[in-house]
Amino acid sequence: MKKNDIEHQGSPSSMPGAGMQVPTRLLGVPLLVSQAEAELMLAALSGRVPAGMFFGMADERERSYEVVNGVAVLRIVGGLIYRGYGWYWRSTYGDIRAQFREALSDSSVAAIVFDVDSPGGEVAGCFDLVDEIYAGRGAKPIFAVANEDCFSAAYAIASAADKVFVPRTGAVGSVGVIAIHYEQSKWEERVGEKYTAIFAGAHKNDFSMHQPLSDAARAVGQASVDKAFDLFVATVARNRNLSPEAVRGLQAAIYEGEDAVKAGLADGVRTFEEVLADMGRKNTSNQGGANMEFAQIFTGLAALLGDAEQRQAATEKLGKMGLAPIADPAVAAAAVAEAEQRGHAAGVSAERTRAQALAEKCVLARTPQLMPALIGEGVTAEAAATRIQEALHNTDPSKGLDNSNSGLSASGADYVIADAKRRAGIK
């Protein structure tokens, strides 16, 4: 069954709900919506609700997120759809994905919370988004709050978070799939209209709204719904660490408050404001991670991890999550003292080597009187060659060294060796 096989072929002015821009891709295909939302769609198609309530909302889709005390708030509100089609379903999976990716890479964001108030939405694109959010676990803390409805596709998204919370009057669930076949053949008979489809392929016209649903078409639709349901069950079971049998056994029921926790669909009963405030306090007091809690976290891990390599790997992974250990003052002081000792020893060794080199040069040049000054002034061995040469030249120019062999020439020859060769007449 293809999503776009269903088409309105009549004149808009002659059909129920005239003027309604209902995307036909939502009809006759599996949907991850609550039963109440499905009824609203049917009401829109039949013209039983004012058309105006559905217009002017498509441009209100969230384009960015808000950051509160280091927490990125991603709002998932209203019907969820793969792309924007001009109806009142205004949150697209593409917008949610873009915001989530940006929040993960945003250095000002330490944690992410989904603010969810949605009846669910389209199957197309939903599970790919859910898998991406699930894969993002560990990079930053991810929470979801039912504020206050979080059904079907919306719950699939929320379940991918690390934790799911629900207020006392909030509700989650509806882990099920529904497809709507809208038929208006009786109405057409009353107004004297008839639509005749000319098609090739036995199933091409299966879900036409201009004729009753055939048994063959119903079987095709049921198979499509069952396939989507299997995927939904497996996804929620993975995300919530439940068995597929337990999720399937929920029978798409909706659970409020504490009942949602008992069913395994939520981790606690808390309002969105409480969750946001708590996450914000942790971020502001712990520099974007959970430094104050790290000691407790690591102590617990240390009891489970058997060797230093395992503990080091755990520390590195926690670091990627924004968790950094608080430095022990005694350990930090000891590290500083050790570094100072190493630096002192290295300095003493370097100074001893320099002084020895200067002394050797002064002795070979018969200028021991220059040693105190050269050593005391911090002159390098290379610069000392020039100083010695200048001192000898000033004392007796005839005994001075050849400038071409001062030790600073391109050849790099030691000035003492060069001078000895010159005095011996060796070139």
Features:
12% strand, 15 helices, single chain, alpha/beta, 13 strands, 427 residues, 2-enoyl-CoA Hydratase, Chain A, domain 1
> Structural class of the helices, strands and pairings?
alpha/beta
Query: What's the average pLDDT?
Result: 77
Which spans have pLDDT < 50 for at least 5 consecutive residues? Answer: 1-22, 51-62, 287-293, 400-413
Tally of DSSP β-strands: 13
Name of the CATH class of the largest domain: Alpha Beta
Q: Write the CATH fold name of the largest domain.
A: 2-enoyl-CoA Hydratase, Chain A, domain 1
How do the strands and helices of this protein lay out in sequence?
Elements: E1 30-33, H1 35-46, E2 66-68, E3 71-77, E4 80-81, E5 91-92, H2 93-105, E6 111-118, E7 120-122, H3 126-135, E8 142-151, H4 153-159, E9 163-166, E10 171-173, E11 178-179, H5 185-191, H6 215-240, H7 244-248, E12 254-256, H8 257-262, E13 268-269, H9 272-285, H10 291-304, H11 308-320, H12 329-364, H13 371-376, H14 381-395, H15 415-424
Parallel strand pairs: 3-6, 4-5, 6-8, 8-9, 8-10, 9-13
Antiparallel strand pairs: 1-7, 1-11, 2-3, 10-12
Helix pairs in contact: 2-3, 3-4, 3-6, 12-14
Q: Could you describe the 3D structure shown?
A:
The structure is a single chain. The chain has 427 residues and is α/β, with parallel strands linked by helices. The protein has two domains: 1-289, 2-enoyl-CoA Hydratase, Chain A, domain 1, CATH 3.90.226; 330-424, no CATH class. Helix content is 45%, strand content 12%. α4 (153-159) links the parallel β8 (142-151) and β9. The relative contact order is 0.09.
